[in-house]
Amino acid sequence: MSLRDCRVPRIPPIRCDRPAVRTIENALYLPHSEARGRPSALFDAAGRFVPESVDYRGTVPSWQRTDWPQDWSSGLPADVHEAPEETYLFLGGAHLHYGHFLVTTLPRFWPLLSGRPAAPILCYAPTDPALWQPYRFALDILARLGLDVRDIHAFEGPRRLRRVVVPAPAFQEEAYGHAVFRDLCLGIGAGCHAPEEVDADDRPAYLAKTRLAGGVRRFANEDEVTEILARAGVEILHPETMSFAEQVRLFARRRVVAGSLGSALHTALFAPPGRRVVALSPGRTINPTFRLVDVLCGNAVSYLHQPGTAEAAPGAFGSQHHLADPRAAAEDLLRRMERMAASPVRGGLAGTTSRLAGAWSRLTGRGVP
Asked: pTM of this prediction?
């Protein structure tokens, strides 16, 4: 059964201005351990939660329930120790899942484009550096921002903050993206590849989930697709076995990258503009977050699905799907990859090298290595 193009949502707004920044005096930091049914949040002196301090999906908080009041002053802890620093820069929660780290945590780090902040960084995050170690991607990204996990302050219990600076995120799932988020990502990714490597490798790559022991979603019979692709000369790669830098370099070097729909495709945020991507989706409709990434990057992306794809037992995944005809899916993927490889780069690469170098220099004080 042939693959068909997915329904692509409307283009979410791309904003050229900088996100808002709010300074709050006498705030309360309430982490997960003390939230007691509420989300982690900052609260102002009047006990009202600070909207910029919580994560949203679309236009409402991802945790929102209709029976929660907007004023949560009742029940908040009263006798709380004061944090040691006079001022903190609050950069949200450290979501230690690859995709959520990229599109939920990292968008709050945009102020670092202007240099290392004078105020210590405060997050909802593990307080023990050892708890970060399994998440190598997060350590690598922080390092490329000039940070170590010990630079991320966090508290296990509530704290009173004398002053806290709260930047709004530069990217909000399913809602909007600011151009400054793309600038941040370009700066992070610029040291992962050399300018002359862009589009240097004509061999297509396919990012597979066949070796994952668990996760959000996958195709239960994806291995039947990858076997056919491999015989046709496509390189089958597994993102979980690659370093962050290797993944970014892959997107920069390969003329076409394909894969099943998932977080691995968000790596394109760190690669030069004009990437060509082919994504195999279990359903007809694409989440607007993927579209936001495409538009921010200036990428050409084909989202494809196979009619007759059915749900399978989820196992260790949030969901699994079974392709009705893996051979037909593989053959159509090959045709689409060939067509994409022959297409001109949408948006072009003019000025890319200088823009990458500028972003890298702002973050590190060095030129592109």
From this structure: 0.88
